[in-house]
Amino acid sequence: MQRVLLAGLIVMWASVAIAHSPLKSTTPANEAIIAQAPNEIRLDFGKAIRLTRLAVTHADDKKMKLDLSGHDGFKKLYLVPFEGMGTGNYLIEWRGLGDDGHALNGTFSFTVE
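RESULT FIELD:
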């Protein structure tokens, strides 16, 4: 009986995870090493989400929010203006809502040499 319940829970968890909108790709790509900072950050999601927060941390500097004012509603693709802060490591953190109301979040990083 316990095995049946455990199997049922695993199937339910997997179906919920698949229903969410994972980040398919970014530009710059996660862990990319590039020669200069990009003019925009591209986030491509598997399903439409409403991006609610996007922030960047450069090297050991403070976290700064990126401007999402031009992005309303649910979208699969976000192109966000970006001003580089020189060479070093960049960490991009994002938060959003799936169209099913679930909170989503994640990170990616890149390095400018």
